[in-house]
Amino acid sequence: MKNSFLYYIGVVFLIYFGNILFLHSAEKPFVVVLDAGHGGKDAGAIGYSLKLKEKNVNLKTVLKLGKLLEKEENVKVIYTRKKDVFIPLDERAQIANRAKADLFISIHTNSAQSRSAKGTETYTVGSSSANLEVAKRENAVMLYEEDYKTRYQGFDPNSSESYIMFDFLQSKYLEQSIGLASKIEKQFVANCNRYSRGVKQAGFWVLKQAAMPAVLVELGYISNAEEERYLSQDESLDKFAKSLYRAFLSYKKEHDNRNGVVYKGTDLDSEETKSEKKVSEEKKEVVKDSVAKEEIYYAVQFCSSSERKPLDCRDFHGFIPAKEYVETGKYKYKYVYGNEKTFKEGLALRDKVKQKFKDAFLVVIRNGEKLSTEEARKYYK
User: What would the pLDDT profile of 288-337 be if each residue is shown by its tens digit?
Assistant: First the structure.
């Protein structure tokens, strides 16, 4: 009888204190660290037309996003910077690590040598040769630090060999990071009407150091005149912030459910979620009719050069303004002319250009990018 009584007391004790521990865990705020890329002496990328500075676009977006998140119940927002100051690259992730953050979001603005490159993209940590140049550009901020070789253990942001280390990185947070990245890109398409380049992986040092789910968001190409104008408008940054906010709400609800915590955030069945559901419902139609909805046109490549040429070069014999695309190889600068909507019109333009450049050939431009020969074939009729 005595043993039964002690067993009963033990069960009550475990239930009572178990509930206390559970309630304590449930009350722990969800900590999100917002990182505005670059800052201070590091301006980041600079726009070609308006000379817009990336560091300012990033900071404005982060502050707008933070203001929305701070209204959420049981969410604590920490900023790596709230003004125009320089923060070392490794310190950004360490701010999140010291705070034992649940999520790290780094906001950036992209740039490319090709002024036609455009679109949003969201990265998780990893390695991909296709995204190596983007990683090199963002990691180059460490060069502003005098002791960067010691601080970053010999890592050289401009050396391809240094990125081999990322191929062996296995992050237990990768699945969650990819989930958030996907939500962000869907929201950008639904609410900002932007072209999405999708979810990608690259060797970003700031993500590698974060001991929690983490993403790096590229809002668009500041090197593209149209996107630079869009990024310069306060209304546009409001849309980006709201899209990131909606993606966060969806992510946090899943996070809370997974951890047995009652979600108390903004109702996800409101208008914000309806737009996301609409994107999901239309996904099959988008894939089915992708050729019709993508921006496709035909042009003619007539010149390859080892050195950069002006787009109105006299050597182009009036086929100006040309568009420049940078690829690999000795003759990495490719110049194309034209904007023909049909394959037939493209062939006619090719024949015209061949009168001056006998090696000219037809190419396909999709959403601002020149397709490879293999990819372009399906557009030849």
Answer: 444 445 688 999 999 999 888 888 788 898 898 888 888 877 888 899 99
CB atoms within 10 A of CB 198: 11
12-49 burial string, b = 16+ CB within 10 Å, else e?
Answer: eeeeeeeeeeeeeeeeeebbbbbbbbbbeebebbbbee
CA distance 327 to 350: 21
SS3 314: helix
Which residue stretches of 70-131 are H helix?
89-98
The CA distance from 166 to 205, in Å, is 9
Phi-psi region of 371 (alpha: psi -120 to 50; beta: other; left: phi over 0): beta
Half-sphere exposure of 365 (CA within 13 A, CB side): 24
Question: Whose CA is closest to 231, among 61, 115, 376, 356?
Answer: 61
Which residues, at least 6 apart from 333, have a Cβ–Cβ distance to it below 8 Å? 304, 305, 306, 307, 308, 309, 324, 325, 326
**In b/e form, how buried is each residue of 287-316, taking b as 16+ CB within 10 angstroms?**
eeeeeeeeebbbbbbbbeeeeeeeeebeeb
User: Which DSSP letter does residue 364 get?
Assistant: E
Q: What is the pLDDT of residues 159-211, one digit of tens each?
A: 554 444 444 443 568 889 999 999 999 999 999 989 999 998 877 777 878 88
What are the tokens at 149? 């070789």
